[in-house]
Amino acid sequence: MSHSIPLTKESYESLQEELKRLVREERPKVIQDIAEARSHGDLSENAEYDAAKNRQAFIEGRIQELNGKLARAYVVDLSGMKPDKVVFGSTVTLYDTASEDEVSYKIVGEDEADIKLSKISCTSPVGKALIGHKLDDTVKVMVPSGTKEYEIIDIKYE
């Protein structure tokens, strides 16, 4: 797991904020909860203590995960670039030739992908197929439901 992780600026900042919150707020709170639960006596039958220890393990694991991601991350900065082709971090508007619908997606990293927010992974079939193509290109993509054909009608670097 030593490979670099591409992130958008927003995602990088979000991970940093989560890490700060966990270290500054959640970790001290769970330590306090453990101390309070200890003061109630017998630890072998203390549900509050077990719950606090489990929460502490989760928090510490998430802190390690975030530290690892941030250490391997590099932020893809598209500012100052001309949006002439689909790249990581770009927002692309597609015309589905079969359904005649338009759809927009932002090409992001695996951790950022969320189809409800119109963010698709650069490693997804659609994301992989789009990267490197230019405005007005037609792209055929094999998806679980068959082959889709899209025309790229807009590219933005936001």
Layout of strands and helices, then pairs:
Layout: E1 5-7, H1 9-38, H2 47-72, E2 73-75, E3 90-96, E4 102-108, E5 119-121, H3 125-130, E6 138-143, E7 146-157
Parallel strand pairs: 1-2, 4-5
Antiparallel strand pairs: 3-4, 3-7, 6-7
Report on this model:
Helix content is 39%, strand content 26%. It is α/β, with parallel strands linked by helices and 158 residues long. The strands form two sheets. The protein has a five-stranded mixed sheet with strand order 5-4-3-7-6. It has a two-stranded parallel ribbon with strand order 1-2. A hairpin with a 5-residue loop joins strand 3 and strand 4 (102-108). The two termini are 29 Å apart.
| Total DSSP helices | 3
Strand order of the main beta sheet, please?
Answer: 5-4-3-7-6
Outline, from the CA principal axes?
elongated
- The average pLDDT score comes to 90
Number of strands: 7
Q: What class do helices, strands and sheet pairing give? A: alpha/beta
Strand residues, percent = 25-35%
Distance between the termini: 29 Å
Measured as a percent range, the helix fraction is: 25-40%
Radius of gyration: 22 Å
* Poorly predicted tracts of residues: none
Q: What oligomeric state do these chains adopt?
A: single chain
The profile of the biggest β sheet is: 5 strands, mixed
Reading the helices and strands in chain order gives EHHEEEEHEE
